Write the structure tokens for this entry.
Amino acid sequence: MPSEFELIRRHFGKPVQHAALGVGDDCALLALRPGMQLAVSTDMLVEGRHFLPTVAPQRLGHKALAVNLSDLAACGAKPLAFTLALALPRADEDFVAPFAQGLLALAAEHDIELIGGDTTRGPLNICITVLGEVPTGQALLRSGAQVGDDLWVSGVLGDARLALEVFRGTVSLSESAFEATRSAMEMPQPRVTLGLALRGVASSAIDLSDGLVGDLGHVLQRSGVGATIKLAALPRSAWLRDVAPAVQRECLLAGGDDYELLFTAPPSRHAAVQAAAQQARTPVHCVGRIDTGSALRVLDEAGAELPQTWRAFDHFSA
Amino acid sequence: MPSEFELIRRHFGKPVQHAALGVGDDCALLALRPGMQLAVSTDMLVEGRHFLPTVAPQRLGHKALAVNLSDLAACGAKPLAFTLALALPRADEDFVAPFAQGLLALAAEHDIELIGGDTTRGPLNICITVLGEVPTGQALLRSGAQVGDDLWVSGVLGDARLALEVFRGTVSLSESAFEATRSAMEMPQPRVTLGLALRGVASSAIDLSDGLVGDLGHVLQRSGVGATIKLAALPRSAWLRDVAPAVQRECLLAGGDDYELLFTAPPSRHAAVQAAAQQARTPVHCVGRIDTGSALRVLDEAGAELPQTWRAFDHFSA
């Protein structure tokens, strides 16, 4: 069995190209360009909470980095580098090799590199910290939403949750529909390019990890505003559109694991939002507006207000 | 039972003072001063590997941050901020409150702040990423040791391992000696001030986390040199001096969890090393020298070479 050091060197030991110093010393060293702030985010993934034991290691490697890049995207930050801490039940090359492959492929897509980390034996746990840069003062924050702003989301919502319901046995889908939703759950595409394009356009942003209602709640709370969402306007896939209305609602409003961007912008920037979306080749939809007060109202297809029964996915109360 | 968000806010939700933006958004934002490089290190702690289930949560909070700060110390970097990702079996305030207290007390000592992170339910796992700054080009690296350099260590070695042996039942100590060694194991003091004072003085440095022989091996390999250590010169506590010679050797050479600095400097900088140690109020001892070749030789009290039976603590082969 290869040792920890050897296993890591073999699969993660690529020499760094941008960073001043990468894996193998006590710290990694990184330079920031003048006028830039560092953006930092850390996410920890645990089996049974953030992924199912059935996920292919390559997809898990992708997802572990993707959910972190999604946080940078929500801030409009350009990814620079990341660290990886990994607890593994055993030094299992059959896991580590494809895991590294999936992770490093996504890293290469975003032109970022692994600059350090840690490996230990323990119950499977993946902790990634991403580092990015954003021009000082230009980061997209949760606190910037203004009354009267339009509320936008990228992509489609609810597919990851729909796949989870198939795994749970509460919904059945055709094989092709299941594969598509499963890809949404296991291989989310972080909206980094859209986040960059929205700098100077969006007034606030957050990435959708815990479900629309819960994550929008963070924006409302931080911005001191309320909002109205139109259920009919929420973008959804053909397969989600085919399932029972109650399941659709749950997936759209409280799905989680979407990793789309939810953002606000003044109506006067409507064309600028569309231009940013086009530049990023990412579809966006206007799904509501920011109101006075602090309430979140969800209107059904007939324009009637739904009772407020959804809440954020809370990892300790689920 | 408090929710995840509430638990975190209650115990970790101090507003940031230095960072541009702290806990509560998708990313934290941090400015670097001109001429500085960012130093980054990530360590993951798992029960049974890095700490025993008997450790008090307050001490565990201290240790989790201390081992990370020790990496910055080894680079001569000034700590700025850190992120914390925490997997907990349940939202247990009796654990989180003292854990946060121990962690934030050490953070306050070093004038750094928690700027972000993640909490989830799962087998206990603590992952911290520390961020520091170092003037460009001045970081202490593992690769800088030169033939003829003196080899130095800070503090004393082996006490943490000695405490572990007591827990394992292979050694017995008086109650006061046990408490002292247990503190060494559970409350290591990162040598941050010494690391800063050694910039421009030491030619290489590493922190001792896996044991002297193993960690020195990293320096030798990266620097392309060999070394000779004199066993008699290794600094040790009064209680370690009292135990059987074979246990002493094991604790000194392969103990692990020391979190002292191992560094090299040319003999011409002897006085400068002493001055740095005095400035940092940290004892240092010269324990050997850097040789040509690639071998690590350990000389016993009579000057005879010991057989090479120690190796780094490898988390997957232990």
Summary: Residues 142-299 of chain A form a domain with the Phosphoribosyl-aminoimidazole Synthetase; Chain A, domain 2 fold (CATH 3.90.650.10). The longest strand of chain A covers residues 36-46. The longest helix of chain A spans residues 57-75.
